[in-house]
Design a protein that fits this description.
The chain is α/β, with parallel strands linked by helices. It folds into two domains: 135 residues, ATPase, nucleotide binding domain (Nucleotidyltransferase, domain 5), CATH 3.30.420.40; 167 residues, ATPase, nucleotide binding domain (Nucleotidyltransferase, domain 5, 2-Layer Sandwich). The protein is 37% helix and 22% strand. Strands 3-2-1-4-7 form a five-stranded mixed sheet, with helices on both faces. Strands 10-9-8-11-12 form a five-stranded mixed sheet, with helices on both faces. A two-stranded antiparallel sheet has the order 5-6. α1 packs across α2, α3 packs across α9 and α5 packs across α7. The longest helix has 25 residues. It is globular, with a radius of gyration of 20 Å. Bound molecules: zinc ion. The site of zinc ion has 6 residues, from loops.
Length: 316
C-alpha cells in the first residue's frame, strides 16, 4: 500500500499525518512552528519529522507518493508564496524548499482553507459533492472553494477569500487587512465576541452575559439557545452577515454545499439554523436552497486535504 504525508502548517503548530492511499490515517502528530529565517526552520522540521516517521514505521522511499502541504496564506497558481504573515515568509516556493530536503520527493502546496475544503470532500461532510465552499469561522474568516473536484486558487491565490468581502459599509473599525466592514471582522470568533460586547454596551436589555467577567463563543451560543436577547441579536447580526456573503457567493459559483467549520462551528445546529434563515432571505432567483452543513473533520481537515492533493496530482 502506498503512503502519502499530509502537512498543515499553522502559525503556532504544524500538524502532520501519514495516510494510506485509500485515506486511512495511520499516524498523526504535531510540532511547534519555528517562525524565523524566512521559513527555513519550518521546512527543515517538516523534512526531519517525515524522515523520522518513515524510519520508525519502516516506510520505503519508493512507497511514498508525496507530501501535500497547506499554508496559511495565498498560494498562486505557480505555487509561489509572495507573503505569508503568520509564518514570516516572503517570496518563496515552499514546494522546492521541501523537495530539495527530501531528495526530490513530490511535494504539493496549497492555501490551508482550500486544502481543508478538499479534505472535507474526500473524507468529511462533503463526500460525494464536487462543488464546495468551506468557511472556517476561527480567529478570522477563512474559506476555500472547490469546483468540479478541484481547488480554485485564482491567478494570485485570492480566490475564495470571502472573509474580505465588504459586508457592512457602515462599519468604521478596521479589518486586519486594513479594510473596513469585512466579514472577517464580523463572523469570526473574535468578531462575534466583539459585537456581543458592543451590543451589551449599546442595548440595555437583560442578558446573562452581563453577569460574566468574560465570555467565549460557547457561553454566547448557550445563552442564545436559552433565548438571551443580546446573544440572539449578536448571532443574528454576525451570522446574518455571513449568510449575505454566502448568498453573494452562490450567485457566482452556485455550489452543491456550504460547509461551516472553525471554532464557531462548536455552536452546532443552532448556528446552521440561523445562517439558513438569513441565507434564504437573501436569495430571490433560486427555487431550491443549497445545503448548509457543519464541517466534520475539525482540525484534521487540513492534513486530509493535503494528502488528497498528492492523489489528485497523481491522477492528472
Ligand atoms: Zn479584510
Amino acid at each position: 500500500m502506498n503512503i502519502i504525508f499530509g502537512v498543515d502548517i499553522g502559525g503556532t503548530d504544524i500538524k502532520l499525518g501519514m495516510f494510506q492511499e485509500d485515506g486511512q490515517l495511520l499516524s498523526r502528530w504535531q510540532i511547534s512552528t519555528r517562525v524565523m529565517n524566512n521559513g527555513q526552520l519550518i521546512f527543515d522540521d517538516i523534512a526531519k519529522e517525515i524522515r523520522q516517521k518513515m524510519n520508525e514505521q519502516s516506510v520505503s522511499r519508493s512507497s511514498v507518493l508525496g507530501i501535500g502541504c497547506g499554508i496559511p496564506g495565498p498560494v498562486d497558481n505557480q505555487s509561489f508564496v509572495r507573503k505569508c504573515v503568520n509564518l514570516g515568509i516572503t517570496n518563496i516556493y515552499p514546494e522546492q524548499e521541501i523537495t530539495k530536503r527530501m531528495g526530490g520527493m513530490s511535494v504539493q502546496i496549497g492555501n490551508d482553507a482550500n486544502v481543508a475544503a478538499l479534505g472535507e470532500m474526500w473524507k468529511g461532510s462533503a463526500q460525494g459533492k464536487r462543488n464546495i465552499l468551506l468557511v472556517t469561522l476561527g480567529t478570522g474568516v477563512g474559506s476555500g472553494i472547490i469546483i468540479d473536484g478541484k481547488i480554485v486558487n485564482g491567478l494570485h491565490g485570492l480566490a475564495g477569500e470571502i472573509g474580505h468581502f465588504t459586508i457592512d459599509p457602515e462599519e468604521t473599525e478596521k479589518c486586519t487587512c486594513g479594510g473596513t466592514g469585512h466579514l472577517n471582522q464580523i463572523a469570526s470568533v473574535f468578531g462575534v465576541l466583539h459585537y456581543a460586547k458592543r451590543f451589551l454596551q449599546e442595548d440595555s436589555a437583560y442578558s446573562v452575559l452581563r453577569e460574566k467577567k468574560d465570555f467565549n463563543c460557547i457561553d454566547l451560543t448557550d445563552a442564545a439557545r436559552k433565548g438571551d436577547a443580546i446573544a440572539l441579536k449578536t448571532l443574528n447580526y454576525c451570522m446574518g452577515c455571513l449568510a449575505k456573503g454566502l448568498a453573494v457567493t452562490a450567485h457566482v459559483i452556485d455550489p452543491d454545499i456550504f460547509l461551516i467549520g472553525g471554532g464557531m462551528a462548536k455552536a452546532g445546529q443552532l448556528l446552521i439554523d440561523i445562517i439558513e434563515e438569513h441565507y434564504l432571505s437573501n436569495l430571490y432567483l433560486m427555487p431550491e436552497r443549497t445545503e448548509i452543513k457543519l464541517a466534520a473533520l475539525g482540525n484534521d481537515a487540513g492534513i486530509y486535504g493535503a494528502a488528497k492533493m498528492i492523489l489528485d496530482r497523481k491522477g492528472d
